[in-house]
From TrEMBL:
NCBIfam families: transpos_IS30 (NF033563). It comes from Microbulbifer okhotskensis. This is IS30 family transposase. The lineage of its organism: Bacteria, Pseudomonadati, Pseudomonadota, Gammaproteobacteria, Cellvibrionales. PROSITE patterns: INTEGRASE (PS50994). Residues 1-131 form the Integrase catalytic domain.
Length: 138
């Protein structure tokens, strides 16, 4: 499961044992618990696994939006970021069977990418105000 913070484009991932609404709801709540104060909205796709989104909204105190069926552009940032993740793990590869550290490494590399919106600094560099990419092994 992937979530992307809209402004800094920070990618969060969490492995879920299955796509049931109970499991995904619990995983989302755990993933965003630390960010509850700044989490304002979440946009889900129209899958049945997100039917129980009301409990997430109550727990996190945020607004939930659901994209219309076949309107992937309503979740464009997440779809684009999933594409970046697919550069590491091509379609057909069972991501759920990969070691957690391999997934975490890919997420780190995506989050450490220089971004045009940060004048080609990475999010980390932008947040600390120092150019550090020459120190990162990517």
């Amino acid at each position: 499961m992937t979530l992307v913070e809209r402004v800094p484009k920070l990618l969060f991932t969490r492995r879920a044992s299955d796509k049931s609404k109970k499991i995904l709801s619990r995983a989302i709540k755990q993933m965003l618990k630390s960010y509850q104060a700044v989490c304002k909205t979440i946009t889900f796709d129209n899958g049945g696994e997100f039917v129980g989104h009301q409990s997430i909204a109550r727990k996190l105190g945020c607004n939930i939006y659901v994209a219309k069926p076949y309107h992937s552009w309503e979740r464009g940032l997440n779809e684009n970021t999933n594409g970046l993740l697919r550069r590491f793990f091509p379609k057909g590869m069972e991501i759920g069977k990969l070691p957690k550290n391999q997934i975490d490494d890919a997420v780190f590399r995506i989050n450490a990418r220089p971004r045009k919106m940060f004048n080609y600094w990475s999010l980390l560099e932008f947040l600390v105000g120092k150019r550090v990419s020459h120190m990162l092994v990517i």
